[in-house]
Amino acid sequence: MNSKAFIKSINSDGLYTAVKWGVVDRYFAWIPRSKLKNKNFSIIGNNCFVGGMYHKYGLKYNTPTIWTYIFPDDYLRFLVRLDWYLAQPLKFTSFSAHEMSKRFTKLTGKVYPIGLLGGDVEIHFMHYKTQEKAAEKWVSRLKRLCRDNLFFVFSDSEEFCQEHLEKFARLPFKHKVFFSAKPQPDYDETVFVRDYALAPYVFDVTKNRKYEKYFDLTKWLNGEGVFNHSG
After folding, report:
1. Is residue 89 part of a domain?
2. Which spans in 68-214 are helix H?
3. Domain presence at residue 231
4. Given pLDDT bands bounded at 50, 70 and 90, which one contains residue 16?
5. Is the Cβ–Cβ distance between 10 and 199 less than 8 Å?
6. Residue 49 CA, distance from chain mean position
7. What is the average per-residue pLDDT within 59-87?
8. Edge-to-edge strands of the sheet including 121-124?
9. Which of 32, 56, 61 is nearest to 45 (CA)?
10. What are phi and psi of 152, to 5 degrees?
11. Domain for residue 125, yes or no?
């Protein structure tokens, strides 16, 4: 997929998103919130999906990766040595090693802070304008990290390949989920989001949360029963 198509995709489904974010979450969120027993958790993710998850329940952002984007290679590297990377000081760079980031900036003219952990994991703060604000949010949310109650979210995206899912599946995490635009029957942690079956990957579901048709987020966070209904 080229950059223009990618940018168009992240701006799609505007009405559906507005209803989900502004109406459902605002007036009917008490229903899933009343069912959520596990209220002190942290979700580590590689994109903005996590923001929509926290918004659904109206909870504090107990994770430093919220509202950030991390490319697949970097994300897997980050997860393999999670404690080590989280202990590293967040530095900033004006250069990205990822071509998609370069194309996005060239096409849109949008410049955002790019954090760097351990010298080789880029944290793209696409929702922030300054390094100072990005660093402030990273540090404050890192302090709230619930290290004994972690959940991990991953999805196919730009630069994703099957090897990334294979590595993710091997990670020894109790709670992990992978959102995919195509069936992945060999991987129990995969949720096939059929709405994107004709797309190269699962696009922005930060607010519209289309995966909810196939995945019970509340049950997953509560550690209850069958939460994957994608078949």
Report:
1. yes
2. 72-80, 82-86, 99-108, 131-143, 162-170
3. no
4. low
5. no
6. 4
7. 96
8. 91-93, 114-117, 121-124
9. 61
10. -125, 130
11. yes
Question: How far apart (Å, rounded) are the C-alpha atoms in residues 211 and 202?
Answer: 9
- Residues 6 and 1: their CA atoms lie apart, in Å, by 7
At 80-119, the pLDDT tens digits run 999 999 999 999 998 899 988 888 888 888 889 999 999 9
- Write out the two tokens for 63: 């994770």
Per the structure, the complete domain to which residue 87 belongs is given by 3-222
**How far apart (Å, rounded) are the C-alpha atoms in residues 125 and 85?**
17
230 in a structural domain: no
Quickly tell me which residue has 């697949």 as its tokens. 72
Each residue's pLDDT tens digit, 153-175: 999 988 899 999 999 999 999 99
Percent of the chain at pLDDT > 70 equals 91
Total number of domains in the chain: 1
Residue-wise burial string across 13-49, b where 16 or more C-beta atoms lie within 10 A, e elsewhere: beeebeebbeeebeeeeeebeeebeeeebbbbbbbbb
